[in-house]
Amino acid sequence: MRNTLNLLLVILLALNLRPILTSIGPLLEPIRQGTGLGYQQAALLTALPVLCMGLVPLLQPWLRRWLSEHGGMLAGLAAIALACLWRLQLGSAWALIASAVLAGLGVAVVQGMMPGLVNRWFPMRLAPAMGLYSAALMTGGGLAAVLGPSVSALAGSWQAGLGVWALPAMLALLGWALLRPHQSVASAADVGGGHWFGNRRAWLLALYFGLINGGYTSMVAWLPAYHLEHGGTAQGGGELVGLMTVFQVAGALGLPLLLRRLRDRRPGLWLALTIQLGGFLGLLLAPAQAMGLWVAMIGLGLGACFSLSLTLTLEHLKHPGKAGSLAAFVQGVGFIVTGTVPYVTGWLREVSGDFQASWALLAVTVVAMLLVTARFTPGSYATAIARRGQAEGVAALS
Q1: Which H or E element spans position 287?
Q2: What is the pLDDT of residue 193?
Q3: How far apart are CA 305 and CA 269, in angstroms?
Q4: CB of 279 within 8 A of CB of 292?
């Protein structure tokens, strides 16, 4: 019964971690018309929350001194809900950008704690549990992309399509207050201590996580606009993001489950990256022929990559608290990298006049990550993670 409630809580929390990003793209044109945002400014609506998702986890070793896990979850969920409620009323570009920062800070706090929490609650079923968490996270994003235009049309304003996501945030806030297990208030020993700035493997994992997930933020930011350029509609753009999400969920759940008996995560990552590469090459070379197929391939690869890369990170350490601390660092640096990608791809769109240069950049990035994946042999985990300048790194292995 307790495990079931914990799973329900993981799903409820994860559903709120992507609507602030994915609700923007399908409504980008009415937002731009109503606020005067350019493409590069509009990229800030995705890039800034993702940068918050990076910076806040990096501060986690210091934040833990005055903010408990329980208090952090409540504050994070409240920030998401308040940002969405604010979006129901705002009408200026800078207010919209400010709401993105507030929501991004909330997501950053919750998301930074989630891998360690999942690792602590489900130590014997880590890969499937991380797959479920990833799938729920992506499902929330897909629902926001698909339903946002309909809500906006029904209410007669684009603000409603952005603000309605306060409801699931308030539900998650209530769920955490009522359903969290007593052991979720972890001690300092449970959550780990210190930082990972001096560890080369931690940096490699962080850059890897950031780059292989950079395609997600770019697709969320620009896929609906790309669809419009090829004669589509706002609703159709949202449905494409929804299609991508369906396959993300399938990748996040299916591939880890299929390969659950393998200790080596590299075959799954190679497969996921190859599928993702095929999708980007399709968008680059033949977008009009099978856009739905290319988007589905990208989604399948992205979903599996997100889940497997976080699992790979957590498996570098046996202690749940130390593994959660490493995952927070990896997400911190990784999301800073990920957050810059849609800004760069938006700039490429601005200067080139189309998205082909953007898709080419993402394809090259995937090729580079295919090569980097070879470094992550399971036998290298303990040795690589022990190479750090701080004495606390040795203690992290105990």
Answers
A1: none
A2: 52
A3: 6
A4: no
Separation between Cα atoms, residue 77 and residue 343, nearest integer Å: 26
Of 111, 115, 137, 170, give the one whose Cα is nearest residue 18.
137
Compute the average pLDDT of residues 229-255.
83
Dihedral, CA of residue 12, residue 15, residue 19 and residue 25, to nearest 10: -160
List pLDDT tens digits, range 54-101.
888 888 777 777 778 888 899 999 999 999 999 998 878 889 999 999
| Burial class (CB within 10 angstroms; exposed 0-12, middle 13-18, buried 19+) of 84 | buried
296 is written with which tokens? 């589905």
CA angle, 378 then 383 then 389, to 5°? 140
Residue carrying the six token digits 């989604």: 299
Q: 66 vs 20, 60, 188, CA distance in Å?
A: 27, 10, 11
Burial class for 169, CB neighbours closer than 10 Å (0-12, 13-18, 19+): buried
C-alpha dihedral sign at 316, 322, 328, 332: negative
Coarse DSSP helix, strand, coil percentages of the chain, rounded to the nearest 5 percent: 80, 0, 20
The rounded distance, in Å, linking the Cα atoms of 184 and 323 is 16
Coil/strand/helix, residue 215 = helix
> What span, in angstroms and rounded, lies between the C-alpha atoms of 360 and 382?
36
The residues with which 199 forms a beta bridge, in sequence order, are 388
What are phi and psi for residue 340, nearest 5 degrees?
-80, -20
Q: Give dist(CA 4, CA 119) in Å, integer.
A: 15
Q: What contacts 291, CB < 8 A, 6 or more positions away?
A: 227, 230, 240, 283
Tokens of 147: 């339903």
Give 388's strand partners: 199
Per-residue model confidence (pLDDT) at position 260? 74
319 CB neighbour count, 10 Å cutoff: 17
Alpha helices in 59-92 (DSSP H): 60-63, 69-87
Q: Cα(274)–Cα(92) distance, rounded to whole angstroms?
A: 42
Q: Are 43 and 100 in contact (CB under 8 A)?
A: no
Whole-angstrom distance, CA of residue 335 vs CA of residue 269: 19
Q: At what angle do helices 69-87 and 166-179 cross, to 10 degrees?
A: 160
